[in-house]
Every structure is written in structure tokens, then in C-alpha cells.
Design brief:
Blueprint: H1 7-11, H2 19-44, H3 59-66, E1 74-76, H4 82-87, H5 92-99, H6 133-146, E2 153-158, H7 165-177, E3 181-186, E4 190-191, E5 194-195, H8 196-199, H9 206-213, E6 220-223
Parallel strand pairs: 1-2, 2-3, 3-6
Antiparallel strand pairs: 4-5
Helix pairs in contact: 2-3, 6-7
């Protein structure tokens, strides 16, 4: 798992982390990249069935976000979730076994690439239906608050989920009930083959977060994979 940075590590250099912390983060990113490269190779050889959505180029987002979490915090994602699962601390061998459809995989070989799940690390899945996991994240956040816990759940989603009704409903409910959920948009500007310009009237996705802020909810941020992970104000923990 991407180790949570201490306060001193996060502020000891001009880049926001010290050398040792930076090495740990880089190691996590390299692990994700190598895992995805081997997965792509196995897929090309016909050893992995179904679909395969790689996380190459987005490693910094998952590793940076996870470094701000505690081990007991939760994470949930869409179908491009290999990097999130690795960053949360899942066993790469069991993950690859799942991609191969083996019974020693994370989901006993029944989920495959798009449905990784690891209760031991509080990784609550890959979900194949675009936007469908956002209400689940809100439900987990409600359960945390209802039980009096102080964890948070980070919900990764792509720009393709923004036009979906679940996106707006989930953000509204999270704002209304002040739930401990962090919505993190990985905007790679294409929802499969559809550009954001063809799908959204408002292409600056972060502005949707501004609208919810007016209702009392402040922890939402859009991060582009091409940029270094900068969680900024949106990464502040939602503690009671």
C-alpha cells in the first residue's frame, strides 16, 4: 500500500515530500506500471479473457491519493481499477490470478479485470457500469457516519461518469448529509472514444464541485493523469 505520508515528509522539500517519501511513492507507481505492462502482454497472448482496461499513465493519481489515506479508509473505483487496488495494498499475485480467471484470485476468478475486490485492504471494487459505483460510495460514507466512525472513502471515477444521473445525485446527497466521501475525477478527456467536448456542455469538470460547495460540501477535486498528484484543499480529511 502507498504509505501514508507524515506531516514532516509532506512539507520538507519544495516538491512537497522528502527524498525517502518520494522514493516510496515512485516505487508504488513503478509497481503499477510493470503490473499493467505484464497484464497487457498476457492479454495479447490470449491468457486473459474479457476486457482489459489499463491504468498506464494514471499511476500518480492513485498513489498520491492513497498516501493521504489511512489503512482503514476505503476506496472504490470504476473498471480501470488495477492501479487503485495495488495502491491500496492488494497482493499483485492474487490480482494477476484474478485476471487469469484462477480460483486463487481476489474474486476467486469470477470477477476478472473489471471486478477486483479486496476486503482485507478495504478496496470495494471495480465496477463495470459507468457511474454506478458513486451511489455505493455514498452508501459506504453514510454507514461510516451512522456507526460513528472516522474513516473516509475515496471514490475514483472518470470524466465519462459526469453526464450520468448518479454523479449528480451522489454529490447532492453527500453534500446534504455531509458524508465522509472524497470524489476524485480522473479526467483523461476521453470516455472510451468520446471526448469531453462531445459529451459535456461544461468541460471544466471541477466546476461541478463548486456548485456542491455552495451546499456545504468541499472535498471534491478533479485530477488529470498527466499532472503530478496534487490533492490540495480537497484532500483534507473529513473527520468529525
Amino acid at each position: 500500500m502507498a504509505k501514508t505520508l507524515t506531516r514532516s515528509e509532506a512539507s520538507s522539500s519544495g516538491f512537497g515530500v522528502d527524498a525517502e517519501a518520494a522514493k516510496r511513492l515512485l516505487s508504488e507507481m513503478i509497481l503499477i506500471r510493470r503490473f499493467e505492462e505484464k497484464a497487457a502482454e498476457a492479454y495479447a497472448l490470449g491468457k486473459i479473457g474479457g476486457f482489459l482496461h489499463l491504468y498506464i499513465g494514471e499511476e500518480a493519481v492513485a498513489v498520491g491519493a492513497t498516501s493521504a489515506l489511512r489503512p482503514d479508509d476505503y476506496a472504490i473505483s470504476a473498471y480501470r481499477e488495477h492501479g487503485h487496488c495495488l495502491a491500496k495494498g492488494s497482493d499483485p499475485k492474487r490480482m494477476m490470478a484474478e485476471l487469469y480467471g484462477r480460483r486463487d484470485g481476489l474474486s476467486k476468478g469470477k470477477g476478472g479485470s473489471m471486478h477486483l475486490f479486496d476486503r482485507s485492504t478495504n478496496f470495494l471494487g471495480g465496477h463495470a457500469i459507468v457511474g454506478a459505483h458513486l451511489p455505493i460510495a455514498v452508501g459506504v460514507a453514510f454507514a461510516i457516519k451512522y456507526r460513528g466512525g472516522d474513516q473516509v472513502i475515496v471514490c475514483y471515477f472518470g470524466d465519462g461518469a459526469v453526464p450520468e444521473g448518479e454523479f449528480h445525485e451522489s454529490m447532492n446527497l453527500a453534500a446534504l448529509w455531509k458524508l465522509p466521501v472524497i470524489f476524485l475525477c480522473e479526467n483523461n478527456r476521453y470516455a472510451m472514444g468520446t471526448s469531453v467536448e462531445r459529451a459535456l456542455a461544461q468541460t471544466e469538470i471541477w466546476k461541478f464541485g463548486q456548485r456542491k460547495r455552495s451546499m456545504g460540501w468541499t472535498s471534491w477535486r478533479s485530477a488529470r493523469p498527466s499532472a503530478a498528484p496534487s490533492l490540495g484543499p480537497g484532500s483534507r480529511r473529513l473527520r468529525r
